[in-house]
Amino acid sequence: MTPAPTPSAPATATASATASASADAGVDAAQAALAGEHACVYGYGVVGAHLPDGAEPAHTALAAHRSRRDELAALIAGTGADPVAAEPGYALPSPVTDEASARALAVLLEERLGALYADVVGAATTPELREFAVRGVVMSAVQALSWGGSPVAFPGLDGRV
């Protein structure tokens, strides 16, 4: 019986470079999702300020996004990368002046974040990160619906497939 051939040095180097690029893409996608979580934390402060008394849904969403932000930052740090920091402020896509515009902002935040998490699902190189991202897509879709968003067949991929 002949032993199986061993990969040549160039093939091994190419495989290693491909694996490294794949890991980098997963971390880059996770960093983008983390930036999205930072934006959601900021945005929900604005949303809550424009809801009538008892803005409990905004407080609940804010707490959930803070928790997910911290968990994602820990996953990124676990790869050896420095998690992206929050910006000092974020430009809103449109003025938020009342409850309707606050709800519209919440829907937009969740839809954008869902798309970022969908990117992580496709680029993740570990089961842990992929599972976290899948839960992020689902959470964002449910939150968008709770704020008055429309259901879509493929949350996070709407308009992208």
Task: Walk me through this protein's architecture.
It is a single chain. Helices cover 68% and strands 0% of the residues. It is mainly alpha-helical and 161 residues long. It has a single domain, classed as Ferritin, CATH 1.20.1260.10. Helix 2 runs antiparallel to helix 4. The longest helix has 41 residues. The chain is globular. The N terminus is likely disordered. InterPro entries: DUF4439, Ferritin-like, Ferritin-like_SF. It holds the Pfam family DUF4439.
Write a compact overview of the structure shown.
The protein has 161 residues and is mainly alpha-helical. It has one domain (20-146): Ferritin (Up-down Bundle), CATH 1.20.1260. The chain has helices spanning 9-49, 56-78, 99-123, 127-146.
Strand content bin: under 5%
Structural class: mainly alpha
Number of helices: 4
Q: How would the global form be characterised?
A: globular
Query: Which CATH architecture is right?
Result: Up-down Bundle
Q: Give the low-pLDDT segments.
A: 1-19
Q: H/E series, N to C?
A: HHHH
Terminal Cα span: 49 Å
Instruction: Specify the biggest β-sheet.
Output: none
Q: What's the count of strands?
A: 0
Query: What's the alpha carbon Rg, rounded to whole Å?
Result: 19 Å
CATH class: Mainly Alpha
Mean pLDDT: 87
Supply the number of structural domains: 1
> According to CATH, what is the topology?
Ferritin
